Sequence to fold (207 residues):
Amino acid sequence: MLKVAVLVSGGGTNLQALIDAVGSGSIENTEIVKVISNKSGVKALERAEKAGIPSEVIRKADFESAEAFDRALIDSIDRSEAELIVLAGFLLVLPPALVKKYENRIINIHPSLIPSFCGKGYYGLKVHEEALKRGVKITGATVHFVDEGCDSGPIILQKAVNIMDNDTAEVLQKRVMEEAEWKILPEAVNLIAAGRIKVSNGKVELT
Ligand code: GAR
Fold:
């Protein structure tokens, strides 16, 4: 059984996709053992509670220093005994010590086809605003391992989504979630749980 901790910051629709996929059996041999949010009162926490998953809020503002916050986050993950950490709309950059400790065991969902529209400052709706501004015709989503850079780790899965003429950032965000994110994130977790993902020379190999 793969133990998974899910880190969230907001709506938690990707968390919901994972909960549903575990429930329906499309993710096998996996248990979501903890949800950690860096914000209180967010919908993602309600979703965790409804699914009976323990959750914890760890907010930067409650700590004296960035180091103390980082330590609390790492301790919380350690205590959960999670073997895989999923960033499902977690909008903070992870402490380098956490990335190092959990090398190739942290994955992130990003709402574009990396390397387009990613890196520092590209998160949430902003990603879709920039894609529309640039006039690209195809966007999508990417699941990748987290390394010490920003959206730079080995790519696990990607799925393309068409952009329509009259799209707003909000409409596009929803289509990317429905057609790509909520599919490839559960799929990636299932592949990892099945032991089918290997990282070699900075690239993902599917076995
Ligand atoms: C999702 O679109 C996710 O891809 C994005 O935030 C949204 C969270 O939605 N993540 C990033 O932009 C990370 N750089 P959710 O809370 O409903 O899952």
Notes: The chain has one domain: 2-198. DSSP finds six helices and nine strands in the chain. The mean pLDDT is 97. Residues 21 and 27 are 5 Å apart (CA to CA).
